[in-house]
Fold this sequence. Notes:
Layout: E1 2-7, E2 16-21, E3 28-36, E4 42-44, E5 48-50, E6 56-60, E7 62-63, E8 68-73, H1 75-83, E9 90-96, E10 101-108, H2 175-255, H3 258-261, H4 272-281, H5 286-298, H6 302-314, H7 318-328, H8 344-357, H9 362-370
Parallel strand pairs: 1-10
Antiparallel strand pairs: 1-2, 2-8, 3-6, 3-9, 4-5, 7-8, 9-10
Amino acid sequence: MRVELRPLESGTPGQGRLLLKGWKGATTTLQLTIQESQDQQFLHPGKTWSTKTHSFELARLEEADAERLQVVLDSTIIDPLLELPGSTQYLLTLQDAQGTKGEGVIRLSRDLMPSSAAGSTPSAAASTALHSPPVAEKTPDPAPEPEPEPELKAPPKPEPVPVVETPPVNKTSKRGPLLFLLLGLGLLAAVAFGAWYWFSNNANTTETEPTTQENIEEEDSFEEEEIVQADNDVSEAEADLSSEENLQESSAASSAGPAMACSIEALGEQDELAFVQGCSQADMTSEALLSVIEAARDANQCGIARRLYANRAIAGDATIALAYAREYDPAYHQANTCFSSADAETAGYWYQIVLDVEPENSEAQARFEELGG
């Protein structure tokens, strides 16, 4: 199904026409789902995205021309599609009340504008003259009176300093200096005797103390080094054990990661959305994923098969896009529950996706031209 989103002829921001070519279901009571390619999330009301599926209700599709149907969409859908990066692709899924389902990648027109672009423009008839209300004249405030300068006072006169008369020195007495000299000599003799006595009694102890102190410091240092070395050995052992445990846990986690969730055996163990998300996160080759898609198709898990085809093809996997095109190509089509009839228009669209990734792909080029692309 070919899906285009174009602006209205009026160019109203936040609105657009959704054009559908190749829709084979009913034109009333429809469910519309939009999924983005970056994080595989679905559009919800309020212009939000979530991993939980949500469907918008469409009352009716109208004829746009002989080959296409259309419906007008508002900012609820237009705005969020224009907010994400330009490299984002959107997968639209349409389903009627009878279960007929179609899907296609939305081609966004460059002329679409979000509702925020509406803005507000002044009326052409509005006057450009600006009128300001009259301003009452203010009487000037009286100039402040200068403050009187402080009177200069004469510096105070210095008070007279009283003169103290010193008593006359008695020069006739000579006993004072002689007495002080004798006391000083006696004090020096006492200090010298005390120093000699202390030195003679402590000479032996000062010779042995440094050696003993050095031995004690060496023993303490040796014990500390042994303790530090023992702690280092324990830390290294614990680190090795922790590294080994982390490696085992990492190996176990990697072996039981998303790759296990995306397998043929897990097809019947999970719901559709969880399985598709697990496959989207798994690091799988194109051939491995194609085996899962074919198993889902053969098991009538049509939603899983279509979503895995579309998500991986939109992400730029040419191998998956080529296989998806063959499902609709009349030259390769094999009737099954998921792809009941050939559709040249849809096949040509996915061949075009292949050529966008691999312009030199001869098979895709030949089939695209053969189908009238």
